């Protein structure tokens, strides 16, 4: 037994799918992934820099390399997350069935 869908039902389904697609695009935006990873690793490396021994610092020619690298990673991660906040992914244009241009 075949079912027929009204124009209104089809439009509602299309709208729901577009909403889910836009949500997935925002969720898996590469800036969110890169920014989050850099922030997490930056915190870990910065903590390692704060707990570095004198021997570790001496190995790096007197520079606390973990501290500086961690702070740099934190800055880069925050940059990506701020960029994501200021310039979010644009939603796809609404396409209504039947409104496609004629060829």
Tell me, briefly, the overall form: rod-shaped
Helix content: 55-70%
- Report the sheet with the most strands, covering strand number, pairing sense and barrel closure: none
Series of secondary-structure elements, N-terminal to C-terminal: HHHH
Question: Total number of β-strand segments?
Answer: 0
Oligomer classification: single chain
Structural class: mainly alpha
Would you tell me the overall average pLDDT? 81
| Binned strand content | under 5%
Q: Note poorly predicted spans.
A: none
> If helices are DSSP runs of H or I spanning 4 or more residues, what is the number of helices?
4
Radius of gyration: 24 Å
Q: Separation of termini?
A: 35 Å
Please tell me about this protein's structure.
- Helix 2 (30-50) packs antiparallel against helix 4.
- The chain has 103 residues and is mainly α.
- It contains 4 helices and no strands.
- The longest helix is centred in the C-terminal third of the chain and has 22 residues, at 65-86.
Task: Give a brief rundown of this model.
The protein is an all-alpha fold and 103 residues long. The chain is built from 4 helices and no strands.
What's the topology here?
Layout: H1 7-27, H2 30-50, H3 54-59, H4 65-86
Helix pairs in contact: 2-4
Protein traits:
103 residues; mainly alpha; 4 helices; 68% helix; 0% strand; rod-shaped
């Amino acid at each position: 037994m075949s079912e027929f869908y009204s124009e209104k039902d089809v439009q509602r389904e299309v709208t729901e799918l577009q909403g889910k697609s836009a949500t997935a695009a925002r969720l898996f935006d590469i800036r969110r992934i890169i920014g989050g990873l850099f922030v997490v690793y930056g915190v870990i490396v910065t903590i390692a820099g704060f707990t570095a021994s004198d021997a570790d610092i001496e190995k790096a020619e007197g520079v606390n390399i973990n501290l500086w690298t961690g702070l740099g990673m934190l800055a880069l991660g925050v940059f990506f997350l701020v960029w994501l906040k200021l310039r979010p992914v644009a939603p796809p244009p609404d396409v209504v069935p039947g409104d496609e241009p004629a060829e």
